Amino acid sequence: MEARTETDVAHVAAAIGDPSRAKVLLALAGGGALPASALAAEAGVSNSTISGHLAKLLDARLLTVEHDGRHRYYRLATTDVARALEQLALIARPLPVRSLNADTRAKALLRARLCYDHLAGRLGVAVMDALRDNDILAAEHTGAGATAVAYAVTPHGHQELSAFGVDPDRLPRRRTGVRYCVDWAEQRHHLAGALGAALTARMFALEWLRHGRYRRVVHLTDAGREGLATTFGVDVDQLF
């Protein structure tokens, strides 16, 4: 087998670098799958133009395509793609807001959104803070730098999460259990990985969260406000 040395960062960066393709990737950053027509609308291009953009994203291995009869649906290739988009947003300049609708969407994304399959934004960071403050997650510096941190579920946290309906011992083995993203809006950690996905899925199942009208945006319900406060000690009133 040929040894792998340097990676072709430029090829991936070029695929992401086009504004229309960036809009496609961000539209899929909530973890769902969409047909080409919907992605064309998100990118603001014609159906004939979107096919070339999708081909480039597939070639760069940023997307995968699923076939359902005669229909094709596109999604991000891996959770690492969503993670990379979130990290790029940390160093990117804000897009100018040119309409009331764009302003409303931007504010909603800042409050609470999906980063692939886990909760992000101001709400996601607040949940992460609460998990640490209540000894559900313990942080340990890895020694790779002052900001390099690893998180682990504590024995107390194992009990609390299991009571909530998320068993840390039964998380999917194909991905890291406890990871974090540096939230581009808050510049702080929100919970990712298999545990972040499981917690978010449980909140949807309990109807604590609901999807908003904009892609990736989620809203906290009244039940969620009460549930997060009583279960994890999240002071939602301080967030919104």
Automatic annotation (TrEMBL):
PROSITE patterns: HTH_ARSR_2
Any Pfam family hit: HTH_20
Biological process, per Gene Ontology: response to cadmium ion; response to lead ion
Residue intervals of the HTH arsR-type domain: 1-96
SMART domains: HTH_ARSR (SM00418)
Example of a GO MF term: lead ion binding
PANTHER family (alphabetical): TRANSCRIPTIONAL REGULATOR-RELATED, TRANSCRIPTIONAL REGULATORY PROTEIN
NCBIfam families with a match to the protein in the record: HTH_metalloreg
Protein name: Transcriptional regulator
Classification of source organism: Bacteria, Bacillati, Actinomycetota, Actinomycetes, Kitasatosporales
